[in-house]
């Protein structure tokens, strides 16, 4: 093998390693790492959770699509069931200050108590850094990361893109499917869907 | 103009930040004569509702009809939408004033003994920066007679405006083709003259990236429009369907088969490219 060929291979490998950064945290990509402050005051780094499944749940307490899943108890049930099975669950709050869904750490802690929510932690992302890393467009958009740190699901929470509570029981939940299939060593059948809901209220969103 | 026509009626049912009214194009219905109803939305400034493909967020209005036996509602005719939202999150919908036409089929045996009350339960999401779901129970009294119906002068302007806002069928002489070009679809159009403006609205969700800029390349007899594929697209698509808006806000419904139905962009695992490169390098 000639030296020039070796260089080409090196360049190719470097380009490939860079790909996930360019295309954001979409299914098949290495999950972009981030560090965030949780509402409980702790600092959370995603890379520290390698070896575990991680769920990211984009949240906005004023969004009626989010309301559907909290008022029905669906989101809390998912959080409890999956964290009991060793999954790490991060609720991510990417609303910018002054926008719907922006809350202080204390307000978020009150909300978690009131809703009896049970994520591993609620991550405060007022700059939208995590949201942009994963190109999160809606709440409640959901991302599932496998123990190898690869995104295996990105999209809607289920197949009923409505605000109606009565649509929760009959819905096919894509997060459940992805986690169950991946844990059984199977291919995730629906690795990406259109993430329905309210637009994420980043600082650049229109007034 | 539309506002004036509607102002005379002003009998809408409240929805969040607006009103909604069920209107008929004719004065009565008659067996064997199809006719049109309209869902007339009037929204406060800055608020919007959604197209059949809402784009990155939101959802279109949904209707449950309550109709006398012998009447059946067809599919909503959706006016050409507008791009709404932010640079990163793009939605498709309507602001201000919009009428959705619903074609109604009246069976030949429609009896004048049937109730003249038509009902519609409409669920609609109304958004500005925030979104509010609304539900309206609409009703309209429309007599059933045996003779063919006459247009209702009170709603004729409203329906004329609604019809004008619908995308048209493209002229027969125009030619379209779509190429699957790995990360994008390239829509080529021959419209007999240079095309200097073109925006495409996809009828099917998750085929193209809603927020990505649509690169227009004018050519002598038309244009090429490059549409980036959606991150959610996993499989090749057989056709590209949607509304094309050209200069002068003229809009056309197009449905173009792919010339080379190829692989979608997101084959699982980015490592594939590395493997190919290494093999070539040997």
Architecture overview:
- The complex is a heterodimer of chains A (207) and B (282).
- Chain A has 207 residues and is α+β, with helices and mostly antiparallel strands.
- Chain A has one domain: Glutaredoxin (3-Layer(aba) Sandwich), CATH 3.40.30.
- Chain A has six helices and nine strands; from the N terminus they run H-E-E-E-H-H-E-H-E-H-E-E-E-H-E.
- Chain A has helices spanning 3-23, 64-71, 74-84, 105-115, 129-133, 174-183; strands spanning 35-38, 43-45, 54-58, 88-93, 121-124, 138-139, 142-145, 151-155, 198-199.
- In chain A, the strands form two sheets. In chain A, strands 2-1-5-4-3-7-8 form a seven-stranded mixed sheet, covered by helices on one side. A two-stranded antiparallel ribbon of chain A has the order 6-9.
- Chain A is globular and about 45 Å long.
- Chain B has three helices and 21 strands.
- Mean pLDDT of chain B is 89; it is low at 1-9 and 264-282.
- Chain B is mainly beta and 282 residues long.
- In chain B, strand 1 (13-15) and strand 2 form a beta hairpin.
- Chain B is globular, with a radius of gyration of 22 Å.
- Chain B has two domains: 2-165, Sandwich (Immunoglobulin-like), CATH 2.60.40; 169-257.
- In chain B, the strands form six sheets. A five-stranded antiparallel sheet of chain B has the order 1-2-4-10-7. In chain B, strands 14-21-20-17 form a four-stranded mixed sheet, with no helix packed on it. In chain B, strands 15-16-19-18 form a four-stranded antiparallel sheet, with no helix packed on it.
- At the A-B interface, helix 1 and strand 9 of A face strand 11, strand 12 and helix 3 of B.
